[in-house]
């Protein structure tokens, strides 16, 4: 499941390897199904200050620090700048209303996934734009013993919230890992953007009403439909094995997949395909010079044969079309 996504991630970041040692989770909409409550709390509390806050606003701004969101909404709708102190007072009202809502469920598969991660020796951390103490306590209760308070990054631990990379970089620091050793699990566009900016491998979970392509466009390396699906398909050995492949094998797999999917070899006339075309050309030169290892030669010959087979098929098809037109 992760093979192509990891290959693309390594190309994006230029890291020589991806060896996951920590998983950083967002909270709302990822570990706890709390977004419906947030929608109500935002709408009712902000209305008391003359600020309109819709369901779409709640999902689009999810993950950002609450005070940052409030200051932006006030500026947008009332054309005035408010201090962080005033925004905090407004956010306190939002927190109060949120506390009156029914207790949300934990996400199906979340506890089970943490159990897997712990058994595999991976560090676990939560990185949230929220600072609401009841939810933080809920995390510590529901995900004990896999989550401890020192592994929770909140809005009050960073100056710049999501979509800046700071929250996830802070999470990495707490876990003592580098970006190429980190998996981020997010459901919000701003959170995905933050994970991407931190150079972590970012998994987008589409648990809300926004289209999946929005998470992909914000930088998710892979998008899944639920925490349950991620839990069921989580395989750290697959991640590590894919990550330990050499750059040659990663590029080989990329081009093989392209040829199989498109039934043709990459074109030098297409900007996005030119890099693959040039790699094929240079690899063939190395093979002909005897500069390629024997195990790679065998693999490369298979790819060349596939390219040649589809080239012959395509040329025949083009010739047939020309005859038909004539």
Structure keywords:
single chain; 326 residues; alpha/beta; six-stranded parallel beta sheet; 15 helices; 56% helix
Give a description of the structure.
This protein is of the alpha/beta class. The protein has helices spanning 3-13, 35-47, 55-60, 66-78, 84-99, 110-119, 133-142, 166-175, 189-197, 212-217, 227-233, 236-243, 247-262, 274-289, 294-325; strands at residues 22-25, 123-127, 152-153, 182-186, 201-205, 222-224. Helix 2 packs across helix 5 and helix 13 (247-262) runs parallel beside helix 15 (294-325). It is elongated and about 75 Å long. The protein starts with a helix and ends with a helix.
Please list the strands of the largest sheet in the order they lie side by side: 3-2-1-4-5-6
Relative strand content? 5-15%
Give the helix/strand class: alpha/beta
Q: CA-to-CA gap between the ends? A: 47 Å
Percent range of helical residues = 55-70%
């Amino acid at each position: 499941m992760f093979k192509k996504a990891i290959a693309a991630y390594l190309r994006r970041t230029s890291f020589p390897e991806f060896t996951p040692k920590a998983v950083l989770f967002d909270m709302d909409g990822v570990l706890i199904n709390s977004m419906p409550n947030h929608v109500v709390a935002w709408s009712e509390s902000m209305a008391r200050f003359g600020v309109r806050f819709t369901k779409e606003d709640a999902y689009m701004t999810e993950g950002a620090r609450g005070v940052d969101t409030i200051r932006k909404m006030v500026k947008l709708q009332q054309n005035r700048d408010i201090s962080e102190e005033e925004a905090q007072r407004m956010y306190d009202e939002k927190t109060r209303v949120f506390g009156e809502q029914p207790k949300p469920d934990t996400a199906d598969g979340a506890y089970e996934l943490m159990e897997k991660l712990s058994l595999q020796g991976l560090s676990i951390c939560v990185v949230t734009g929220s600072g609401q103490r009841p939810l933080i306590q809920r995390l510590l209760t529901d995900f004990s013993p896999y989550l401890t308070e020192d592994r929770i990054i909140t809005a009050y631990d960073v100056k710049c919230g999501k979509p800046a990379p700071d929250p996830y970089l802070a999470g990495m620091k707490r876990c003592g890992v580098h970006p190429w050793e980190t998996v981020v699990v997010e459901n919000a566009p701003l959170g995905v953007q933050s994970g991407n900016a931190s150079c972590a491998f970012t998994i987008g979970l589409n648990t809300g009403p926004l289209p999946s392509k929005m998470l992909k466009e914000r930088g998710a390396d892979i998008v899944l439909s639920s925490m349950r699906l991620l839990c069921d398909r989580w395989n750290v050995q697959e991640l590590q094995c894919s990550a330990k492949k050499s750059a040659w094998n990663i590029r080989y797999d990329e081009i093989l997949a392209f040829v199989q999917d498109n039934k043709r070899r990459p074109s030098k006339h297409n900007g996005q395909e030119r890099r693959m075309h040039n790699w094929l050309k240079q690899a063939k030169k190395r093979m002909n010079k005897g500069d390629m290892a024997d195990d790679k030669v065998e693999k490369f010959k298979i790819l060349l044969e596939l390219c040649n087979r589809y080239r012959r098929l395509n040329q025949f098809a083009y010739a047939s079309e020309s005859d038909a037109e004539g």
